[in-house]
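just leaving the lab so this will be short. what follows is a protein written twice so to speak, once as letters and once as C-alpha cells for the fold. can you read through it and tell me how you think this chain folds. thanks a lot i owe you, the record is right below.

___
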Amino acid sequence: MKNDVLYYSVGALLYCPANKESIADSIIHEKFGNKFSLALCLEDTINDDFVTEAEQTLIESINKIFINYQKQPFYLPKIFIRVRNSEQIERLTKAFKEGIEIITGFIIPKFNSDNATEYINQLIKANELVSKKIYMMPIYENSSIIDLRNRTDILYSLKDSLSPIEELVMNIRVGGNDLCHMFGFRRHSDESIHQIKPISNIFSDIITIYGMDYVVSGPVWEYYAGDNWEKGLIQEIQDDKLCGFTGKTVIHPNQIPIINRAYQVSRNDFNDAQAILNWNRNSNAFVSGSEAKERMNEYKTHINWAQKTVFLAEAYGITD
C-alpha cells in the first residue's frame, strides 16, 4: 500500500472545463472552499474544434493563479490537467513556464494498452524538464476492460507498464459513467453504481489488481441537487469505501463538503489505529480488545488498515 499521506489526499476532485475563464478568479477568491483538488479538462468537456483556444485559456488561467499566489497566498488545491493526447503533456509543461510549479500532474483519459507507453514516456520527459515531481492519474474507462476474456491480462499488463513510475502515480481512477455508457446504464439518485453488477465487477477486478499498491479513487456521482441527491451520494461513498476506493470525482461544488465529511475518520477508528501502530512488538500477545471494548484489534491482521486510517485522519480530520 502507499506509505505517504499525499496519495490519500486528492479527495474531492472537482472537474472543470479548461476553457472556463472564471476558474482562476474562483481559485484566487477561494470560491470552492479550502479542501478539494481541481481537474482542468481538455478532453470530453471541450469541442474538438476549440482545443487550441482551450489550451491558451488554460495557460492564461494557470499563470494568473501562479502570479496572484506569489503576491498573496490563498488555498491552492492540487491542480491536475486532463489531457486528450500524450503530446499535450510536454507542450503544456513547457508552455506553463513558471506556472508549472502549481501543477500537481496530468490525468490520462481512456488509459489502455495502445496508449500507455506513450503517456508514460511523456510523463518521464515532463519530469526531466522541471525540478519538481509531476504526477499522473490514469483513468480506467476504455472498452477493452469490459471483455471478460482479456480483462485480467489487460489490467495486469497496464500495471506492469506503470511499475517503473509507481511513485509518480498519484491515484488510479475509474470512469464509471463511461463504462455505464457502453451498456446504456444510468443510475438514479437513490441507486449506487455498486448495484450495477457488470460495472461493479470491473471495479472489483481493478481493486483486486491495483488496490494493494495504489490508491484507487471512486467514480463520479452526477447528482448535485433535487430529491435524495445528498443521501444517495453518502450511500455511494459508503459503498466506495467498503469496496476499497478513496476519494471521488466531483462535477459540482455542492458535492465537495459531503465527500470531505464522508472521509473523516471516527474517533474510535483513529484510537484503534494508533493503538495498533504503537503496539509493543516485544509483547507476548498480538491481539487485544479495542479501547472502546467493542471489537478485537490484531496487530498482524490490522496493521495496513491502521496505517491507511491514520493517513485519512491526517488528510480529512477526525470526527466524534
